[in-house]
């Protein structure tokens, strides 16, 4: 009995230690800015003309980004990348949007790439607002011609912005419903909903979004469950469309198949300028 009691105490201590680790190390589990500080290439390396931009946030950070213009562009994509890497790792997306005839503004959140500061949930929302202002005020692009495109974590940031502004539409690629929902999947044995210091509740934002929504997700996604994409689609308002991808979280990209690209193009073109 004494040995059993001792083992129980040790197990309880280990459990508490793991819970404490999860609580205090959340930021390093959510963000991977260190994996993408170095810019490995620029649009010029892929034959794309671009402007290097510095965007000031309301709290004094400086965001680095690229604006890739297209002659006689029919729309402009504001791109929100995922939690790892930086803008130089999304070159294939830039090529796709350029080929489809859309300008693109892609930027790094604070603490990523060449942007200043350290990432935080509230900080990424301020970053989104700053990028939006750059497009609609500095570049004077009508909001009804701006497409918000978010991949993974960036989808939550894009959805947050879509609630507060009036974009033409919102595109979510391989996006989770919320951080607590993701944590519950990874650590089902811990009270993660009580421990979580992050929300990024994409599904809650979608319930109050008023613009058209395009959701793309793969049943083979090995990081964000396919059920998250389905739930987001169900929560989104009409008009909306769901695109079933193939492949894992890091290789089921929309630009990898022409029929996927065509589905996205049709939805974007049908809804540009439709928001009053």
Q: What do we call the CATH homologous superfamily?
A: Alpha/Beta hydrolase fold, catalytic domain
End-to-end CA span: 72 Å
The poorly predicted ranges are: none
Provide the helix percentage. Answer: 25-40%
Order of helices and strands: HHEEEHEHEHEHHHEHEH
Structural class: alpha/beta
The averaged pLDDT comes out at 89
Largest sheet: 8 strands, mixed
Tell me the number of helical segments per DSSP (H or I, 4 or more residues long).
10
Count of structural domains: 1
The count of DSSP E runs of length 2 or more, i.e. the number of strands, is 8
Gyration radius over CA: 20 Å
Global geometry: globular
Write up this protein.
The chain is an alpha/beta fold. The chain has a single domain, classed as 3-Layer(aba) Sandwich (Rossmann fold), CATH 3.40.50.1820. Helix content is 39%, strand content 17%. It has ten helices and eight strands. The chain has helices at 2-24, 26-30, 91-99, 121-138, 153-164, 179-186, 192-195, 202-206, 226-235, 258-271, and strands at residues 51-56, 62-68, 75-80, 102-107, 146-151, 169-173, 213-217, 240-244. Helix 4 packs across helix 5. The chain is globular. The termini are far apart. The model has no long low-confidence stretch (mean pLDDT 89). InterPro entries: AB_hydrolase_1, AB_hydrolase_fold. It holds the Pfam family Abhydrolase_1. Residues 76-179 form the AB hydrolase-1 domain.
């Amino acid at each position: 009995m004494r040995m059993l009691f001792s083992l129980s105490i040790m197990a309880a201590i280990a459990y508490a230690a793991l819970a404490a680790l999860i609580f205090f190390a959340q930021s390093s589990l959510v963000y991977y800015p260190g994996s993408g500080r170095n810019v490995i290439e620029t649009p010029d390396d892929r034959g794309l003309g671009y402007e290097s931009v510095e965007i000031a946030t309301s709290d004094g950070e400086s965001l680095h980004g690229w604006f890739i213009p297209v002659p006689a562009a029919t729309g402009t994509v504001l791109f929100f990348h995922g939690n790892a890497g930086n803008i130089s790792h999304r070159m294939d997306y830039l090529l796709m949007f350029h080929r489809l005839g859309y300008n693109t503004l892609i930027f790094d959140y604070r603490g990523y790439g060449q942007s200043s500061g350290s990432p935080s949930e509230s900080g990424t929302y301020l970053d989104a607002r700053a990028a939006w202002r750059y497009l609609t005020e500095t570049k004077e692009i009508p909001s009804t011609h701006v497409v918000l495109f978010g991949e993974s974590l960036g989808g939550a940031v894009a959805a947050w912005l879509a609630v507060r502004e009036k974009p033409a539409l919102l595109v979510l690629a391989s996006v989770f419903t919320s951080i607590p929902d993701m944590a519950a999947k990874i650590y089902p044995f811990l009270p993660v909903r009580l421990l979580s210091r992050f929300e990024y509740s994409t599904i809650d934002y979608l319930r109050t979004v008023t613009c058209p929504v395009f959701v793309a997700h793969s049943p083979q996604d090995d990081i964000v469950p396919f059920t998250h994409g389905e739930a987001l689609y169900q929560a989104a308002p009409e008009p909306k469309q769901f695109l079933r991808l193939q492949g894992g979280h890091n290789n089921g990209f929309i630009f990898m198949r022409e029929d996927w690209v065509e589905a996205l193009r049709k939805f974007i073109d049908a809804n540009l300028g439709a928001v009053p």
